[in-house]
Amino acid sequence: MKPDTTTPGAMTEIAASLPGLSLAWRIAAREMRVGLKGFRVFLACLALGVAAIAAVGSLSESVKSGLMADARVLLGGDVDLRTQHQPISAEQQAYLHANATRLSSTVEMKAMAQTDGARALVELKGVDAYYPLTGAVQLDPPADVQDVLAQQNGVWGAAVDAGLLSKLGLSIGDSVHVGKATFQLRAVIQKEPDRVASIINFGPRLMVSTKALPETGLVQLGSQIRYHERLQLTANADPELFIKQLKADFPHAGWRIHGPGNAAPGLQRFIDRLTLFLTFAGLTALLVGGIGVLGAVRSYLETKTSTIATFKCLGAPAKLVFQVYLLQVLALSLVGILIGLTLGAALPFIGIELVKDHLPFVPHVALYPFALFKAAAFGVLVSLTFALWPLAQAQETPAANLFRTNVMPVMTKPRLHYVLAVLIGVFLLGSLVVFWAEERNFAYWFVAVSIVTVFMLHLGALGVMKLAKHAPRPKNAVTRLALTNLHRPGASTPGVVQALGVGLSVLVAVALIQGNIAKQVKDTIPDQAPAFFFIDIQPDQVSPFDLAVSAVPGAHGLMRRPSLRGRIVEIAGVPVDEVDVDPGVRWAIRGDRALSYAAKPADGTEFVDGTWWPEDYAGPPLISFDANVARGFGVGVGDTLTLNILGREITAEIASLRKIDWRTLRFDFAIIFAPGTLENAPHTHIAAIKAPPQSEPEIERVVAKSFANVSAIRVRDALEAANRIIAGIGAAITGTASVTVLAGIIVLGGTIAAARSRRVFDSVVFKVLGATRRQVMGAFLLEYGLLGLFTGLVGAIVGTLISWAVIQFIMGMTWTFLPLEAIGTVIAAITLTMVAGFFGTWRALGEKASGHLRNE
Amino acid sequence: MPDTQTALSSAIQLDDIHLRLSSDAGEVNILRGINLDIKRGETIGLVGPSGSGKTSMLMVIAGLERPTEGAVRVAGNDITHLNEDKLALFRREHTGIVFQNFHLVPTMTALENVALPLEFAGRAHAFEAAREQLDAVGLGHRVEHYPGQLSGGEQQRVALARAFVTEPTILLADEPTGNLDGKTGDTVMELLFDLHKRKGTTLLLITHAPELAKRCSRTLTMADGHIVADESVS
């Protein structure tokens, strides 16, 4: 029975009985029955972004799990104790023997390996009879490492990295000199279980027996030698408890202790940092995906204008219309996210196969629910945030639209609560990025740069449309049509500029940042950097060394300083673990630092605060400190640092602060002591010399001949290694950033597909009015070409600005504009849009006119 | 305070309705002081040249366009200042609309299209009522077909069924046979008037066909935003 609506108040009662969510779902389900054809772009964009984040997260967890699982192998035991310059004391040795089931000692240092005609810097490692405590050394030809290294017929054996063979032109069975000893190369090291992958290797590995080391003459007091004591505890022992007890029993020992929880902190940091950047790349892809979602939902709702108006004519309230289409978006988001999660979870299984041979441990590939959950959460938020605006606009579609033909979609601003909901969505997205990031500082920057980038691209798109609108009307009809299509109502310009523009901006920014860093390494540093660094010059060698190298023609600018290593244990009287040190200078408290002492400051020293000590100073310990590190520590002149040097703790007052630009490879030290504190400690000297390339071989020969214990590090080799690493990292980041461009291409394809019906209509009408196919195609291609040109330009400008900001303000370097990268981007953009436009337009031109000219 | 008796016997009352719409080209006066009183059960033919304001007046009556000046009362309700949701409720309860282009939802079957307004109203047994209505228009055997699978005449019959299923007080039809051939159009109009007779619905029909206008009890002629003639059939 129909309710009474004529008495007063009846309308209010009826108003209260609004249909619920179940009706909205029923109608949404009927709408989706026709299939997902119109949502291919939506699904692709969402799936790609979610897959990228899921893959990065799963890959990272796989690597971290593998690292944890293989921690003991990487560590070389349950616990690793590391000292510099000298081994542990007899008392400490006895303690370890009493509390561990097995012990293994190794020694590592840089050395020069020589043949009659060549020499090379190597990472020399001496191992004892118990090595390795965990894992196994894999050699080629297969053999037991102890057998390979043993003395045979009076000759010690060695196992080497394949790189040393090629560097010195040697084969297995040949001999090589290290210091005063000779070694026969008996096997190639295929896998060294406790050698954690280093970012920079100054030399290939040369492994020998510790019993052979005294014959080399390289193990001298003060030499830059790292001693390792690896322990195997009892089966039930907890390494962390053991470490805690060890620290309590030897509170001032100069060793660094590593347990399974921090077996490879450097590698761990590298993995975390790489994961961070790759996650940001994935998030950028998802951001582009969000723009794609926005476009796809808008396009879909444009086709539903008539249906929405019909619903309203039939009595559906605006809220119900919103619910119907929101539920569709949510359902499709679920599908897209599931596809993305499936891909993202599967990719690590493939990816690990490609890289596992290059890793020192076995990644543990599995399903990691939390990584997938994070990706799904981002997917849901992006989908909702970007879909909300067009949904809210669509619900404002007037029912009266049904009486009008050729209706334009509603572009009014949504109601205030929807605008607030979008802002909340953006805020939640940014908060999640920061909350889940390993390094919050980077995350804040990423969120800020993303928002600014999208905003700048949006402004760029508006600028392009305004430019096209106000440009002088071209005489040529084809050109006029193309230009008009850039700014007509419903033009795809904003969507394409934003989506493709984000990817292009990222690529340009990465290319320019990498280019600037490479330029600095390649062009600037070599002009200022020395040709060689020399280490392990004994005190009694300094004068003859100075004379020998200075005498080489072309050699100049010799600088030499005493050097030993120590570790900062307290800052202003507070243990380092309890100090909130700025992340940018945490390197200073990780591991040992190179220390020196001097009576006079070096030429060119730039003081920021305080004063240098008198040349004949003989008072309490004073230091001159790196001003940047001091700032990061929160200390200044007058504060103290306590360092553990060779087992002794020395507290020194900061007398002055120096500005040091490490990027120029300036020969300097972060901490320089005043005279009177370190002279009697065992130490060596390090030196640096400048020379033209043609003088380098002679300098190397002179040093190798007379100072076999001195290792020469050719800076050119180091810079080339750095260049390779920068190029490699740049390629990896560029490759990942390409996912962003891929997302942009999907959006471009979707935009072109969505505009197809209009293209068809336009081409039909044009043909009816007498245009040739060539003219019609010309107009469309020119339109896409212009769109690509403007998108490329906007992307290049935004990317250039980002690179400038990063280089100038974050890295503190001088920024250089590299035009090739920017131009390449513009060309790529034009090509992409024109190719996509061509394929989209070709099919539209083929449609028969008659079918489109009849009424519904 | 309106006269209650008059309000109850009047289906539609328009008091000095003006409608002005803004566009980039300036303001356009669509309706220029329309006064109209339509009694319940009347059949009104609305004729006039293109651009005379016929569709706009129909939209004002349906609550789809808000008048710039004047008052609109439909089925005893002053809808002049209702907000959009209340207008949707009003339409749901009181009006049925038939369009020249049918405007069926393409992703729903004939049955679902007809049931839709009942579902919006939260009425129980919506699909049973829809089935009955489709039977009444002779499409009981096509209930599961989609609009794309129906001819133009069949689609318009579905649209008629949808318009009548809520038993509206008034039925508004904007050139319902405009896209149909002669024979099909006749069939649809027979149905329309038959349903009107059976349910006593007030019918307002925009048409260019004089023979159709003659079937109505009253013909209004519009020109240039005014009602220039109001003829009743005796």
- Rg of chain A, Å, rounded: 34 Å
- In total, the number of strands of chain A is 21
Give the DSSP E fraction of chain B (strand runs of 2 or more residues): 25-35%
In DSSP terms (H or I, runs of 4 or more residues), the helix count of chain A works out at 25
Task: Bin the helical content of chain A.
Answer: 40-55%
The average pLDDT of chain A is 85
User: How many helix segments of chain B?
Assistant: 8
Low-confidence sequence ranges of chain B: 1-7
Q: Characterize the main sheet of chain A.
A: 6 strands, mixed, barrel
Overall 3D shape of chain A: elongated
Largest interface: A-B, 38 and 42 residues
What structural class do helix, strand and pairing data of chain A support?
alpha+beta
Helix content of chain B: 25-40%
Parts with pLDDT < 50 across at least 5 consecutive residues of chain A: 3-18
Strand order of the largest sheet of chain B: 6-7-8-3-9-10
What structural class do you assign from the helix and strand content of chain B? alpha/beta
3D structure, described in words:
Chain A has 856 residues and is of the alpha+beta class. In chain A, 53% of the residues lie in helices and 16% in strands. Chain A contains 25 helices and 21 strands. In chain A, the strands form two sheets. A six-stranded mixed beta barrel of chain A has the order 2-3-8-5-7-6. A six-stranded mixed barrel of chain A has the order 12-14-19-16-18-17. In chain A, strand 2 and strand 3 form a beta hairpin. In chain A, helix 12 runs antiparallel to helix 13 (369-394), helix 14 (416-436) packs across helix 15 and helix 15 (440-470) packs across helix 16 (477-487). Chain A is elongated and about 100 Å long. By secondary structure, chain B is of the alpha/beta class. Chain B has helices at residues 4-9, 54-61, 84-94, 110-120, 126-136, 152-164, 182-199, 210-214, and strands spanning 10-23, 26-39, 43-47, 69-74, 77-78, 95-98, 170-174, 202-206, 218-223, 226-232. In chain B, the strands form two sheets. Chain B has a six-stranded mixed beta sheet. In chain B, helix 4 (110-120) packs across helix 5 (126-136) and helix 6 (152-164) runs parallel beside helix 7 (182-199). The longest helix of chain B has 18 residues, at 182-199. The two termini of chain B are 33 Å apart. The model of chain B is unreliable at 1-7 (pLDDT under 50). At the A-B interface, helix 1, helix 2, helix 11 and helix 12 of A face helix 2, helix 3 and helix 4 of B.
